[in-house]
Amino acid sequence: MSETIAPTAAAVPLGPDDADIAELTRTYRSDANGLWAWVTSVDHKSIGKRYVATCFAWFLLAGINAVIMRMQLARPENHIVGPDRYNQLFTVHGTAMMFLFAVPVMTAMALYLVPLMVGTRDVAYPRLNAFGYWVFLIGGLFLFTGLYTNTGPDTGWFAYTPLSGPEYAPGKRVDVWAQVVTFTEIAGLVAAVEMIVTIFKMRAPGMSLNRIPLYVWSILVVSFMIVFAMPSVAMASTMMLAMDRLVATHFFNRAEGGDPLLWQHLFWFFGHPEVYIMFIPGLGFVSAIVETFTGRRIFAYPVMVLSLFITGFVAFGLWVHHMFTTPVPQLGRTLFTAASVLIAIPTGTQIFCWIATIWAGRPRYTTAMLFALGFIVVFTIGGLTGVMIASVPFDLQVHDTYFVVAHFHYVILGGVLFPLFGACYLYFPKITGRLMSETLGKWHFWLVFIGVNVTFFPMHQLGLDGMPRRVYTYLPEMGWGKLNLIATVGAVIIVSGVAVFLWNVLASARAGAIAGANPWGAPGLEWATSSPPPPWNFHPVPVVEGRAPLWEAGEELPVATGLATDKREIVITTALDAIPDSRHEHPGPSHWPLVMAIAIGVTFIGAVWTPWAYVIGFAMSGVAFAGWGWPRGTHPEDQVTDGILPRAEAR
Amino acid sequence: MTRRLRRVIDLRELPDVVFGPRDIMWWGTLGFVLIEGFTLVLCAAVYVYLQQNFSTWPPEHTPLPSLGAPTAQVLVMLASIPVVIWTSKAARRFDLGKVRIGLIVATLFNMAFVGLRAVELLVSLNVKWDMNAYASAQWLILGAHATLLAVELVEVGGMALIFWIAPVEEKHFSDVTDMAFYWLFMTIGWLPLYVLCFLAPRWI
């Protein structure tokens, strides 16, 4: 589709323009210094980095919960923690891993990478991006503050009613959970909108739909899934569960015509797509890794894209398979079983495409590539047990046992953690300008790969032996001791692997080998700029003439010139063919996103205690809104007065 | 970068003020319309789901909602639409005077929406949220949509203030057309919910 871009200027070689770079440096420099410059930054790279770091902080804290639980279960009748503390530990572990790590860390990586991959200078709404991060940070702080003050949620990460309702869960623990969910959903939704608009309207000229990198496709699909999945849980937690507890509405109160099962429907209408929201970006990472380290374009690109779309659609037709032990009509069970089996097909198709790519390419077994291969093994095991529990009779036997715990840890660690670690090795040089140690990386991979299997594979057998999930201890006569001990040993191995990773990150950031712009010889636009990229990412803007721009460009990179350097200008392109259509000025640094996030924080944290918090918070948000949007008159040349258009002639 | 750069496109002549789907702010508005619209669909689904728990709707000993203020609300919303479309068209022509008038009228309409919504909740429904699941569902739908009305009042009121007293730039006219797009969603989107909350209880 290269004919869709009509060259408007002669193709002439361009030299480096120092004057342009100097002016861009002035344009993108913050007036503030130090911490305040960091706080007010709206650069997607700065936001993306702090977002990823924050997600990993929650990952480590939630991981500590997991280690304590494994220690507790290492032998029968253990008393490291009691049942009340154990309930909080597993609830916060699950809540944090799902709402504060697995989904948002993928979002955070996308916020950093997608603008670079599509060849633009930032995300669509930089200030909204900063706002999303601050809201997310407040939500995470609130959850762990709750845990460490003995107000941690304790009804499981899906907070089933009536257990989580006012009758069976007095106190504020569940309210903390409900509002944490609200914070994370707000952050997730604004990021999704940013990604959709960035991908549809800000791609580099020439990057038509059939040239979009597979990782970017995966983020587009996931962003649409977030738009339709997250409102369900946000509504159910903020407007229904919290209200049942705070002002005595009756959504889930059977005595007044409510229905506890309604919660399960609303939660899993979000919760099952959530699984795919987590790992579809992982599929995108695996495509990027396999393509880079085999030196070959991904086999059957259209099939890969269609597989992502089919997965995204079918993911919304599976939620009832979490509810097979509830009175669901027989026909419904059959339908949801069929859909649950069906969804294995597009994912399986992608796995075959990766294998074909590796087969036909010249694979380099770097750490990133090892994690991609580890993903294929671990995730496939999780997928196969998923097909098993899609069968109603089997599910009835293993429901709420450790078999299910094993299944979803294989899926999530395989589908999220392995691709994420692989992506860290792939993109660390781009983010920091330095390479990570491959030696430490391989230790990291093997420790995590062995640790995951030693920890979670025995849990399949524990589940088949009847061990229920969420018990804080068990009797010696049950015979579960040995397998639990093995699982705990595996957890220690995983922890050592993560420790090696952290050491590798810190050491490499300080003293890793200098990377250069494209250390892996990768094909994407993100490798066309320096490592780390300048605040404006690209100058001039790259033009795309194929699906693997850098492999096809040869010695000359086609570019588009003419964007202003004295303001933060980006090019807007058409949604389908990415034909340049207009220029748009992005805003500069601002503290108002933080102020708005604090207003939202006051609203939802206050709402744990009083509904008046909504009134106060709305007023505060109004003030923040005014500060955010009020024009500063920074462009007097564009001002319209009494019907006089300053640039009418030009138009 | 060691590669040579080959210029193939010059972006200098592209416009920097555009309207509708050419503008990324329109796309952002569309994103939030999708999110909020789907939330309202889910609220309606909750309402229908809970209705199945009762043999009559509203449940026994629960009064029907009154129709006066809710019907007036619908009529006022419908009346506002031509005004907002007129304002949007004026914005596309960069007609500052007409846009200023249109935004003031729209703000007054929006204030009427919020006032009427308060009457709908406190008077017309004839039930408090904690009476039973029916009452909770009614408050859920009206409350969720009320947040749209309140946020839009802040937006359109703020926009009117900007156009009257702040330095207005050409790009702000594009924002007015996006506001009009959201307005159509907010008002037309209410019509099926009006039917569900105020008319359906009379039919079921």
Descriptive notes:
The complex is a heterodimer of chains A (651) and B (204). Chain A has 19 helices and five strands. A two-stranded antiparallel ribbon of chain A has the order 2-3. In chain A, strands 4-5 form a two-stranded antiparallel ribbon. The relative contact order of chain A is 0.12. Chain A has helices at residues 18-28, 34-40, 44-73, 83-117, 126-148, 173-201, 214-246, 260-294, 301-314, 330-342, 344-360, 367-389, 392-398, 402-432, 438-464, 481-511, 549-553, 592-606, 612-629; strands at 13-14, 541-542, 556-561, 569-573, 580-585. Residues 1-13 of chain A have low confidence and may be disordered. The longest helix of chain A is centred in the N-terminal third of the chain and has 35 residues, at 83-117. In chain A, strand 4 and strand 5 form a beta hairpin. Chain B has 204 residues and is mostly helical. Chain B has helices at residues 24-51, 68-92, 96-124, 133-165, 170-188, 190-203, and one strand at residues 4-10. In chain B, helix 2 (68-92) runs antiparallel to helix 3 (96-124). The model of chain B has no long low-confidence stretch (mean pLDDT 95). Chains A and B meet through strand 1, helix 6, helix 7, helix 8 and strand 3 of A and strand 1, helix 1, helix 4 and helix 5 of B.
* Sequence stretches where pLDDT stays below 50 over 5 or more residues of chain B: none
Number of helices of chain B: 6
Helix fraction bin of chain A? 55-70%
Major sheet size, sense and barrel closure of chain B: none
- Give the DSSP E fraction of chain B (strand runs of 2 or more residues): under 5%
What would you call the shape of chain B? elongated
Major sheet: arrangement of strands of chain A: 2-3
Shape of chain A: globular
